[in-house]
Specification:
The protein is mainly alpha-helical and 217 residues long. It has a 3-stranded antiparallel β-sheet with strand order 1-3-2.
Length: 217
C-alpha cells in the first residue's frame, strides 16, 4: 500500500503493514525468529518508518512480534509456558464457539463445512502441507464465524496466529497440525445441533493437537 496520497489516514497505511505481517505468520510464510527490518518494510510497502513502527508496535501488543531495544523487531518465539496458556485459552473460547454455532447453524453452513473437509482431504493426500495448514486453521475460523460472535472471532483469530508460531516451532515432524477425522466428527455433531457434544469433541481435538507438539522440558 503506497503513501502517495497525503490525505489518506495513517491508520489505513499502518493496517496494511499489520495485516501483511499478521497473514504471513498465520499462513507460515514468516517463521518464529524472522527479523523484520524497518528499512525493508518501508521499501516493500512504500510507507514511512513511523507507519512501520506503529504496525510493529501493534503486533508486539498482540504478542506476534517481539521488539528488543537496540536489536529491532522479530517474529515472536513462544515458549512452553505460553504454549500451554494459548491452548488453554483456545479450549475455553472454541468450546463457547461450537456451542453457539450448533444453536445457529443451518443446512447451507453444514454443506460449506463439508466442502472445507473435502479440500482438507485433497491437500492432505496431495501432501501439500502449506495448503493443508491454511485449510485446517481456516476450519476453526469458519466455526468462529458461524457463532455470530464478533468478539470470539477476534480473540480466536489472534490465538490462531500465535498457534501458527507454536506449530512452526514444536510440531513433531510428519504430524499434521490438525487431524482431518477430528474435524469431520465436529461437523457431524454440529449437523445434529449437539452443542455440548461438539464442545467436548473440540476439547479432545485441541488436547490432542497440543499433545502432538514436542515441547522442551
Amino acid at each position: 500500500m503506497k503513501a502517495s496520497r497525503p490525505s489518506e489516514p495513517s491508520e489505513t497505511l499502518d493496517q496494511g503493514v499489520y495485516e501483511a505481517i499478521f497473514n504471513g505468520v498465520m499462513h507460515g510464510r514468516l517463521k518464529p525468529g524472522t527479523r523484520l527490518q524497518e528499512a525493508s518494510l518501508c521499501e516493500q510497502f512504500g510507507v514511512s518508518r513511523t507507519v512501520v513502527r506503529q504496525a510493529l508496535r501493534r503486533l508486539s501488543e498482540a504478542q506476534i512480534v517481539e521488539i528488543v531495544a537496540n536489536k529491532g523487531a522479530a517474529v515472536a518465539t513462544p515458549g512452553p509456558r505460553e504454549t500451554r496458556d494459548v491452548f488453554a485459552a483456545r479450549r475455553a473460547i472454541e468450546g463457547a464457539i461450537v456451542r453457539e454455532a450448533a444453536r445457529r447453524i443451518e443446512h447451507g453452513d453444514i454443506e460449506r463445512l463439508k466442502q472445507r473437509l473435502r479440500a482438507e482431504h485433497d491437500a492432505l493426500h496431495e501432501q501439500d502441507h502449506p495448503r493443508w495448514v491454511a485449510l485446517a486453521g481456516g476450519f476453526h475460523l469458519a466455526l468462529a464465524e458461524l457463532s455470530g460472535n464478533a468478539v470470539l472471532q477476534r480473540m480466536l483469530t489472534e490465538l490462531m496466529t500465535r498457534c501458527s508460531l507454536i506449530v512452526a516451532l514444536y510440531e513433531t515432524p510428519g504430524e499434521a497440525s490438525c487431524e482431518h477425522d477430528e474435524h469431520a466428527r465436529l461437523v457431524e455433531l454440529l449437523s445434529l445441533r449437539d452443542g455440548n457434544a461438539a464442545a467436548d469433541e473440540m476439547e479432545r481435538h485441541l488436547l490432542a493437537l497440543e499433545a502432538r507438539l514436542q515441547l522442551p522440558a
